[in-house]
Amino acid sequence: MVSQNDVDEILNRSRNAFLIFKNVPGKKRAELLRAIAAGIEGSAAKLLPVAMRETNLPEPRLAGEVARTCNQLRQFADMLVEGSWVEARIDTALPDRQPVPKPDIRKMMVPLGPVVVFGASNFPFAYSTAGVDTASALAAGCTVVLKGHPAHPETSNAVADVFSAALAQLGLPSDTFLHIQSPGFDVGRMLVQHPHTKAVGFTGSFSGGKALYDYAQQRKEPIPVFSEMGSINPVYLLPGALKSRSEQIAGQYAASVTLSVGQFCTNPGLLIAIKSQELDLFSAQLATAIGKTASAPMLHKGIAENYSKKRTEALSQKGVTLLGQGNGDADAGHGIPTLATVGGKDFLENPLLLDEVFGPYSLLVQAANQDELEMIAGSVAGQLTTSIIAEQSDWGQFGSLLQTVSEKAGRVIINGVPTGVEVCPSMHHGGPFPATTDARFSSVGIDAVKRFVRPLSFQNFPEQLLPEELKTDNPLGIWRLFNNQWKR
Amino acid sequence: MVSQNDVDEILNRSRNAFLIFKNVPGKKRAELLRAIAAGIEGSAAKLLPVAMRETNLPEPRLAGEVARTCNQLRQFADMLVEGSWVEARIDTALPDRQPVPKPDIRKMMVPLGPVVVFGASNFPFAYSTAGVDTASALAAGCTVVLKGHPAHPETSNAVADVFSAALAQLGLPSDTFLHIQSPGFDVGRMLVQHPHTKAVGFTGSFSGGKALYDYAQQRKEPIPVFSEMGSINPVYLLPGALKSRSEQIAGQYAASVTLSVGQFCTNPGLLIAIKSQELDLFSAQLATAIGKTASAPMLHKGIAENYSKKRTEALSQKGVTLLGQGNGDADAGHGIPTLATVGGKDFLENPLLLDEVFGPYSLLVQAANQDELEMIAGSVAGQLTTSIIAEQSDWGQFGSLLQTVSEKAGRVIINGVPTGVEVCPSMHHGGPFPATTDARFSSVGIDAVKRFVRPLSFQNFPEQLLPEELKTDNPLGIWRLFNNQWKR
Questions:
Q1: What is the pLDDT of residue B184?
Q2: CA angle at B36 for the pair B34 and B40, rounded to the nearest 5°
Q3: Residue A91, phi then psi, degrees to nearest 5
Q4: Using CA atoms, how far apart are residues A19 and B287, in angstroms rounded to an integer?
Q5: In contact, A394 and A240? CB cutoff 8 Å
Q6: Which residues pair with A399 in a beta bridge?
Q7: Residues B84/B488, Cβ–Cβ less than 8 Å
Q8: A184 confidence band (pLDDT: 50, 70, 90)
Q9: CATH number of B318's domain
Q10: Do A216 and A239 reside in the same domain of the chain?
């Protein structure tokens, strides 16, 4: 059990390490991220069996996740070596300007301070100990206190060992990355409310993410909390597409719902279409596709029990009927792939149907007509993603739907499914509340670094006191806005 | 008195206007900002006498502020015409990639929605009705609901008329900018807590700014609040500088403290130096310079009364003594220029001495030695600015001071005073809490637009559905990160 004294000591250590680490050049931080990536790859043979045992995820899925994690670390390393991410702006002095001289002012991003990161249950590598929150915070020049997810403690410990080795190898302060494990609920509050903590990263449930956010707002000094929380990732299926490729869509959608036993934050939990004969055919095809799917054990007992409970509750709502289900043994912790349906009117009257059922569950909402479909689109809260499956011919009629969903999602997908989050600069993994607590920031891609920095202006600094990024002759060769011109 | 029904109607109108305005191209929004600037310049002969009467500020000061306001509007217009501010990132598809194809993803910034802006008392133009919050929100594509500051209602009305004319002239929705006035305290809460409100801009007191922030966090859907609040803008005067140019510094500092009767958020309220014979000389020079300053009426009666009360309270603290004061008639609403002093030990023991005294008041803290000076630097909370007056020879000894203050300020100034906020891209006007509620954003300069946007990813969009900024052939000619290369 971690006490308040323990938390004080941990954050003091992290703060002291920050005073050193914040001045470590970007290229050296890049070396650290590469050393961590190499260390994880080097330990993969040891890590994978541990993670398989702790998460029930199959080896190919975890091996893919390890590759993704190392790829993420290296993308941040590349970003640091390139260097332009600091958003340098330079305006040189005009000492003779009237009525007052213009001073020399330069600006760049600097790190916030110690960041507390909470590991996620469903990604033991990519969103946990060495995941994107940690990678982006270290890239920013922040130190990290990582609270391991209690569902995979041994994996988390083994990854933390990689950090220790990498920091030692590069002669960086060992407290740059601190790893703690504690089953207690209070430790989260203590970590978030410690005065040395300057930002928080979290991936998980709405209740957990919102609680951390509220703790942070109750501090004397509020701090940013980046909670990536639940999402039902609506998919709108338009009439033209339904007519032309119903069976293909059913197969693609069923695969997306059931991928990794539905344990993705981008899992499509809601499918909306307008009632028609074609929809009847499609729903039968989708029910069949889902019915053919075999299940597997979910991440851990708690998640499986929660899925079973939420699924039962969802299926018992007014107007909801079961259309199809796959095979599996709920008592053995399997998540049974499930397709349910409901009419648009019943859906609009029951906000509970907007709740996420974390697992391989999806609800097909059959709208009476286009008006009802647009009302449904208007009733949905903020989402990580929203997809529209459409033919060219659909856009004339459904242009306003695209407008509506664009306001409510962080990523809009046309003719695709939401699962599969590409790690690249154009990926925004975030979205309006309640998908996240801050729609303005992404937890995937190099822009995730922006969560952990703030701008600092340097006015009238002698050259030798300026950071390399802002020296006049641009020794790092980065892109800068120099007297209103982009230059490097 | 504005009721909840009125607020509902206002935000509904703003929301409906947003549905149109968000799709207005950047170049057209630039025309709007230019038309507003031209309208303000065209009305200046009418606006200035009204503002002079309402704020007690002299004509040259207000004429300068009008010029600054129009300059700001035009800087945002230039930014929109140039277009790269949307941070476009494009990653094209790799359909043959193994093991899974890479989809086409593109990302850019989109507006948040209706923004509520609260006018400031001390800048009837530059931080009020047509100020930087309004300008940056409109630049972002957001609509604005402006609550005029009750201290200058006629000025605010006259500026609002300029918006109406500019919107009509360009055929844009009249509700793009809505102006309300209400003396009530409740209306602020209702505006911030209305579900259609998506962000808030405020410049003013800590109590006001923090209350709005808390209202926003109590919403079902929390929203960003950019409150720029109080700051005492510490100035550290190092021994070398004190030795070499004591009198020049005294004159410069006295001018900064008393400029515009001290009614700037960047007013230097705290001067810290190490006890010495040179400091005795300097403090006498500074007391003389302040004593020579004539006062003038403050913005309004409430501010003058508050200054008088806070000044009396500050002067009555343990160990605080009056060093010098200028001339003026407090009963006539003048703010009496005041220099007080206190020893480092008394200062460290009394947190009340860190409170802002809004007006021409400054406290010289005499530290016993370097250790005490560094302890004082460590005890200070977040600030808009921190200045260090130093000779080259001081840096060897005081490098760690620069490290400390850099963590606590949004702008660090060497050998200058904090007043005079240049409007340019490198200016960060913001800072760690309690200077603002969000250290990551500036309320001056074109980067202020970042407060009112969020990223949106477009995955697998057909060309004709993409915004101009993201079309493959780059019709706007903007800078974009295209497959990891900066191009335009």
A1: 74
A2: 120
A3: -125, 110
A4: 38
A5: yes
A6: none
A7: yes
A8: confident
A9: 3.40.309.10
A10: no
Tokens of A462: 């002698």
A204: left (phi over 0), alpha (psi -120 to 50) or beta: left
Residues A223 and A243 in one domain: no
> Residue A348: its pLDDT value, please?
98
Residue A477: phi and psi, rounded to 5, are 65, 35
Cα gap B275→A114, rounded to integer Å = 35
pLDDT at A230 over 90: no
The domain tally of chain B equals 2
Cα–Cα dist A119/A188, whole Å: 12
Joined together, the tokens standing for residue A201 give 């990263």
Task: Look at phi and psi of residue B458 and say left if phi exceeds 0, alpha if psi is from -120 to 50, else beta.
Answer: beta
Q: Identify the active-site residue in A31, A54, A265, A469.
A: A265
Which residues in A lie closer than 8 A to residue B71 (C-beta atoms)? none
Dihedral of alpha carbons A11, A12, A13, A17, sign: positive
A91: β partners? A105
Sites in chain B below the pLDDT cut of 50? none
Residues A118 and A196 in one domain: yes
Q: How many angstroms separate the CA atoms of A355 and B425, rounded?
A: 43
Complex ipTM > 0.85: yes
| Residue A420 placed within a domain | no
Distance CA A10, CA A3 (A): 11
- A409 contacts in chain B (CB < 8 Å): 456
Q: Could you read off the pLDDT of A135-156 as tens digits, one per residue?
A: 999 999 999 999 999 999 999 9
Distance of alpha carbon B340 from alpha carbon B324, whole angstroms: 7
Take residue A198 and report the two structure tokens written for it: 């300057």
Identify the helix (H) or strand (E) that includes residue A370: helix A370-379
Contacts of residue B460 in chain A, CB cutoff 8 Å?
Answer: 413-416
Strands (E), A225-328: 225-228, 235-237, 270-274, 321-325
B379 close contact with A: CB closer than 8 A: no
B169 three-class SS: helix
Q: Is B403 in Cβ contact with A19 (below 8 Å)?
A: yes
Q: Is B457–A426 a contact, with Cβ atoms under 8 angstroms apart?
A: yes
CATH number, residue B451: 3.40.605.10
Per-residue pLDDT of B338-352, as tens digits, reads: 999 999 999 999 999
List, for residues B89-119, the tens digit of each pLDDT value.
999 999 999 888 999 999 999 999 999 999 9
Is A85 a member of any domain? yes
- Reported as type and span, the H/E element at residue B454 is strand B453-459
**Residue A162 in tokens:** 């990689």
Q: Which residues are within 8 A (CB) of B332 and not within 5 positions of it... i.e. 6 or more apart? A: B297
Omega prior to B99 cis, within 30 of 0: yes
Upper half-sphere CA count for residue A93 (Cβ side, 13 Å) = 13
List residues bridging with B94 in a β-sheet: B102
CB-CB contact of A357 with A310 (8 Å): yes
Domain that holds residue A54: 4-229+437-487
Neighbouring CB atoms inside 10 A of B78's CB total: 14
Q: Is this structure's pTM higher than 0.90?
A: yes
The pLDDT confidence band at residue A263, using thresholds 50, 70 and 90, is very high
Q: Is A392 a domain residue?
A: yes
B420 part of contact set with chain A, CB < 8 Å:
yes
A51 φ, ψ to 5°? -65, -40
Q: E strands of B105-252, at which residues? A: 105-111, 115-118, 144-147, 177-180, 199-203, 225-228, 235-237
Whole-number Å distance between alpha carbons of B344 and B359: 23
Share of chain A above pLDDT 90, in %: 96
Q: Are A456 and A404 contained in the same domain? A: no
Name, in order, each residue with C-beta under 8 angstroms of B384's C-beta and a sequence gap of 6 or more.
B228, B231, B233, B265, B266, B409, B410, B411, B418, B429, B430, B431, B435, B436
Rounded to the nearest angstrom, the minimum Cα separation between A90 and chain B is 6
A 60-79 near B (Cβ less than 8 A): 64
Which region, left, alpha or beta, applies to residue B335 given φ > 0 means left and ψ of -120 to 50 means alpha?
beta
